Every structure is written in structure tokens, then in C-alpha cells.
Amino acid sequence: MKNYKILMFIILLLAVAGCTKLDEEVYDRVDAANFLTRRDDVIRDFLRPFEHAYWSIQGNDVYAVGENSTDEIGTFNRQGDWQDGGYYQRMHYHTWTPQDGFTNGAWRNFYQGIVLSTNSLQDMEGIADPAKLNVTPAELNDFKAELRTLRAWFYLRAFDFYRNIEIVTDVKNSTQGGVQSTPQETFNYIESELKAAIPDLPLREQLGATGIGRWTKAAAATLLARLYLNAKVYVGTEKFSEAEAVCRDIIGGKYGSYTLDTRWDAPFDYTNSSLNSEVIYGFPGTLARTHWQYDSGMFFWGMTYDAAPLYCGFTDFGRSNPRFALQPGRDVDSVEYSHALGKPFVKFQKYPDDLRLKKYKNLGNSKREGMFLYGYLPYTATTNGVSRPDTVRGNKGPYALFIRDQVGFFLAAKPGTRINDKESNMNHADHNSGVFLVKYPVYPTP
Prior knowledge:
Distance between the termini: 88 Å
CATH architecture of the largest domain: Alpha Horseshoe
Structural class: mainly alpha
CATH class of the largest domain: Mainly Alpha
Low-confidence stretches: 7-20
Largest sheet: 2 strands, antiparallel
Number of helices: 13
Helix content: 25-40%
Shape: globular
CATH topology of the largest domain: Serine Threonine Protein Phosphatase 5, Tetratricopeptide repeat
Order of helices and strands: HHHEHHHHHHHHHEHEEEEEE
Strand order of the largest sheet: 1-2
Number of strands: 8
Number of domains: 3
């Protein structure tokens, strides 16, 4: 018994001694207190939300639902390809359910950006002595203004998608969202954030050609104009005059100098970062790293399978994919639909001198013509050193594809030939169906 009491006494002493110091010592991560110790840390912190912003253009099906729910773009069931349990058809017919991932995917997309922007903004606001980090006060003010603008951009997109959203301004001291804001509160908040940020934002001329992807006075003003332009839908009050005033200020040079490009395709080309470009805001992209416009969630999966490697000569990413195409303007007998909305390709055809109407074609030396893929797509096939002319085909048969502004089962039917199957809808298409949009160039692989 005596030994037992001694043992218990020793255990108690050890327990008391072991509980006197419970401060956590961090070994496997950098905590907030010592993260910002030099200029490079500040730059990394500032830029982190921009990486997510780049991805957010098409991530979580944002592009898909934003376009498929309109009368412009469609993801058709092409003989079983892209049927996907009716996932995309529910986008088109507005019959989605809470079980469809895209209904909250965009929300997570936007709010991750809002949280990241707010986190970095609060870090910047916590810098008491920027000189110790080799950062000037002007730079710090710029970083704060750009982060506020970036966050406002995320809010504007969330507002446009959902209308009823919540405003988050603190992520350091709270992990829960707040109450839902009214549309008017959200509108006022976005407007005030942009107006407050503009004075501290740089002009494009100050950043130079390397400033692509940075928020400027003109870029923030453009967001303000967009907010005003849609005010009637958002809050029930027209603000067209306010939108016009901001746009006239941009054109007049109040927010920096901008001029129209001399080529229609220049804003979408690889060289659009020059100071002579009309691009007010754009994300930087490279073939080897980030290139959202060439991802599967956007334009690279907006062509028939072999259009990229065979017709365009671009082989870096393998085969393209016909996930997205224009909504048709004609029925299977090539009769124009009577409804006024939609029919994007038909509307381009009303202006035959429009240079964009031409079939997309690479001209060499990083030049292209046209913005659409339609008709036959010829290429030169080489087998055992012997070259011969050929035409792009689909994956459902050996016939050459003739891409048309119609949706149906055309299969091997020649252009102008009437088919017996008159069914035409989102669930009844083949690989000839739907003109493809090639907004960004697909130049040949060197």
C-alpha cells in the first residue's frame, strides 16, 4: 500500500510538471505572426488571390453554366458523348437540382476568391512599418487597392450569378459566414469598394507591358460601369446614365490612355500585353503554365476531336473535344428558326463583310483569320512518308464531318442533303452538329 501511495505521488508530480507550459511551438508551417518578414513575402501574399482568380474564369463549371444556360452555347448529347446523365441539359433547360455540382460550384469558386483576397488584404492592413519589409507606402496602398478591386470583382460575379449573397470582410477572426445581404446592400458595397480603390490604383502606363493582370484605374472603372449597366436587374433601379458617364471617362482618358487595336483579333492574340493593346484587364498566360482559355472547361474543348491536332496543327495538348458549340440557328432542313433570340451564327451571317465570320484558319507567322469552325476541315495526312489531302472525321464513323449551324443526326449526309430524321434538340445531336467558336488562336505547334 505504501509503495502504491509513493507511485501515485510521483505520477501526480509528473502531471503537474507536464502541464505548466502548453504553448504551441510550430515546426511544420509558418504562422501569421512571422510570415511577412521581407519584401518577397509581401509580394507572394499579394499575388496569391490572383492565381485563384485566373482559374476561376472557368473553374467549377463557371463557364459551362454561364453559357449553357443562355441561348448562345450548348453541350449536346452527341451520340452518347456528353450526355452525362442530363447534367448539361439541365443547365440549358434551367431544370437543375441542388444535387447538380454546378449549382454550388460557382459559389465555392467565387467565395474562395473572396476569402483569399480578404486574407491578403488583412495581411497588408496589418503591416505597420512597410519600410522594414522594403516596401514603400505607395506600393502598400496599391496592393491594398488592387486586392479590394479583386475582391469586388469576385463579389460582382457572385452577385450576377446568385443575387442573394453575403458580404465577408473579415477572415482572420471568423470562420463563419454572416447574414445574407439584400441586393441593395450588396450593390452599395461593391460600388463603394470600387470608388474607394480607384484613387490608389495605378494607371496602365505606370505598370508598362509587364502590368498585364494587375488592376488599374481603368479596370476598376470598367467594373463600376458593369455594375451600373445591370443595376435595373440587380436592384430595380436604372443607372444607365451613370454607366455612360464612366464609359465616357474611360474613352476620354481619365483613367489612362487606351486605343483600339488595328486588328479585330488582336485583343485575343499572344501579343495583347503591349501598351498599344485595347485590353483594359487581362490575365497573363503561357503555354507551359497557366492558360485558362485553353483548358477543358473552356475554349480548347470547344472544337471537334481532331480539329486542334489535324486542322490547326496544334499538338501540345493532344485532341480537342466538342464539349461546347454554338446553339443552332437552323432546323435540320436548314430553315432558320423563327424565334428572335439566340441564333448567334445566323446573326453574324447578316453582315457578310464581318471578318470574324470567315472559317478559322492559321495563316502562318502567328496570324489567323476567322473566328468559327464550320464546313469541312481539310488537312494533309502523311503515311509512310506519302502525303495526301484528307478531312477531319468524328469518332462515330469513317465519314468526313461537315460542321453546320444545325443540330441533328446528319452522319454521312452531304451538305444540302435532306435527312429523314427531323428530331433536333439537346439530346439528339451528332458530331456534325453546331458551329464551333474559336475566340483565341490555336496556332500550329512549332
